[in-house]
Amino acid sequence: MKTEDIKALISRMTLEEKAGMCSGADFWRTKAVERLGIPSVMVSDGPHGLRKQSDKADHLGVNDSIEAVCFPAGCGTAASFNRDLITMMGETLGNECQAEGVSVILGPATNIKRSPLCGRNFEYYSEDPYLATEIAGALIKGVQSKNVGTSIKHYLANNQETRRMSSSSEVDERTLREIYLAAFEGAIKKEKPWTVMCSYNRINGVYVGENKEYLTKILREEWGFDGYVVSDWGAVSDRVKNLEAGLDLEMPSSHGMNDKLIVEAVKNGTLSEEVVDQACERILNIIYRFVENRDPNAVFDLDKDHEIARKIAEETIVLLKNDGILPLNEEDEIAFIGKYAKKPRYQGGGSSHINSHKVTSVWDMVSHKKNITFAQGFNDDTDEIDETLIKEAIEAAKKAKVAVIFAGLPDAFESEGFDRSHMRMPNCQNELIRRVAEAQPNTVVVLHNGSPVEMPWVNDVKGIVEAYLGGQAVGGACTDILFGKVNPSAKLPESFPIKLEDNPSYLFYIGEKDKVEYREGIFVGYRYYDKKKMEVLFPFGHGLSYTTFAYSNIQVDKSSITDQDTVTVSVDVTNTGNREGKEVVQLYVRDVESTVIRPEKELKGFDKVELRPGETKKVCFKLDKRAFAYWNTEIHDWHVETGEFEILIGGSSKDLPCSKTISVQSTVKLPVTYTMNTTIGDIMEDEYAKQYIGELMKGSMLTLGDTEQDSEEEGAVSKEMTMAMIKYSPIRGILSFGTGEISIEELHSIIDKLNKR
């Protein structure tokens, strides 16, 4: 429906009907206005599968939903580093929505993984905003290509489950821009999601849903978002303030209570009816975008989509360690140990929980083979060590050539609604791994978890496979990786610290009651570990393959650019092994010398390439201003500092064999205001100001003069000491240590002149 037609429709609605349009009819549907032919449409949970509830509705996945297909969770899909693959996943989800009459699927979940403890990390993509926004954008692109909307969430700075409906994320402007807003920005600007879901929490004391800065100024005016903003379920605190800030649709239904508040506010003049009209226009625009583009031929083919889920899962499994033990030989005697071999943990708990129409385990794939045995090893409904189960596992491992232990985190350890209290796996599992590895040196561990875990046994096993939460087809994908039918190609979208205490947010995570301070600032994940030169268990971007890759011939098409230019960077990647494989080529940028505090390096590009043995491909990246910029809080904009920047390319954040340095010239002159307290060193960096101040300093004690000393007493005042004292002395020091030839009025006059140029 055209904009003018929607406006005309709104003009025919009563105030009560317009207010009613701004909240749900029930848990999942918008309101209809039958007399005007306005239909009701359905939204549904679904970052990694369609959770369309067929009967009683709820938010946390307690009640049954329709049978559907569970794809790998966000923790895994980000590990693919494959935009095309995730776009295909989005297309599949979009088609399922068309078949089921769902207008908007609630996802992707794009929040930054600030801490490994966040209970909902399994849904989120990364600790890095560039990777998060690129993967989110790929999913949005796929879903919306089927004329179904997405709802990118949870906007903004929603990084823990504890007190999520009342806590205030205390974050500075630069950190918000470079880390937490950036995770949403690229996807929203490029892919235009139909809706944005507002988070529960406050930012710096104000609920996001009541903050016009984030919902209107940044989201709409700066980024160009043109859909509607929907509340997270139950996130509305003050409906009138929400509406004024830019929160259009309240979900679920308020049973008419908040509708009445909107009507009253318009009638008493505290709310403009134009604000209500605008919200209705945004909501109706999305409703009709779906209604007018229904696909009558869409079919939800569960088995077909299961195979697509398996294909996606193949690229979400990260090979963390391989001391020559993988891939396995299918003819060898092998012991599969651990409950997750038969009943894998393949998805997280909460609102994204999918009612999978079937689940394939690794045991389903190999149970027909007589050379592969099974031992349960542990129970995941308790953390108690079961000696009988462990002894059975040890015996099975001793009889085999290789033991593969399927372990990880049970539902009780990570889920929506609560945060983890530690980063450990269950004691019963750690003990199982330790003792099996002691009995059988050829041990491999396969992990099913949504976020990093500590690995006290990391040096005791020969292979570690991070399967994440791989969806309902994880068994087939995992089996193919273990036996080499598929070459692993995933990379870690997050750092695995050695221990929880190493994480930069450790001291402040969860906060004090309703206040959570983000004191680590921009140093999230690898940005912190790199800056501190800290060892990690496995670094961001790490992931092994059954083949090897070599990088060479890095080229830049310009050695010097301005911040208004782009530069094209290319590198040759060669498969130096004996089997076909895919490599994730990662590009990082480092500011060689910066006057502002910056990370050691930041991810600014990635691409995934498939190479046959011996094949070489050239991979190209185009970098613009944002690749070199930081957020300058003086000008409230992205800014590039003139200087040298190193471009680093390789296979992980710790393996970057190729580099080139280019010069970037800023075209922006930062505003400067001098005062009597500005240091001489800061003024002397300004060529224009330097000529005036230099003259004033002649003959004063602030002039360096001859610092070569003859006597031992005079040698106590070194040249370095004198220079430092001058550099950090306020300009008013000329009055105290000068010759007395300049007055305070004259000095003020010079400073005024410098400020007015």
Automatic annotation (TrEMBL):
InterPro entries: Cellulose_deg_GH3, Fn3-like, GH, Glyco_hydro_3_C, Glyco_hydro_3_C_sf, Glyco_hydro_3_N, Glyco_hydro_3_N_sf, Ig-like_fold. This is Glycoside hydrolase family 3 C-terminal domain-containing protein. It comes from the Bacteria. It comes from Variimorphobacter saccharofermentans. GO terms for biological process: carbohydrate metabolic process. Pfam families: Fn3-like, Glyco_hydro_3, Glyco_hydro_3_C. The keyword Membrane does not apply. Keywords: Hydrolase. PANTHER family: BETA-GLUCOSIDASE. SMART domains: Fn3_like. One of its GO terms (molecular function) is beta-glucosidase activity. Residues 583-653 form the Fibronectin type III-like domain.
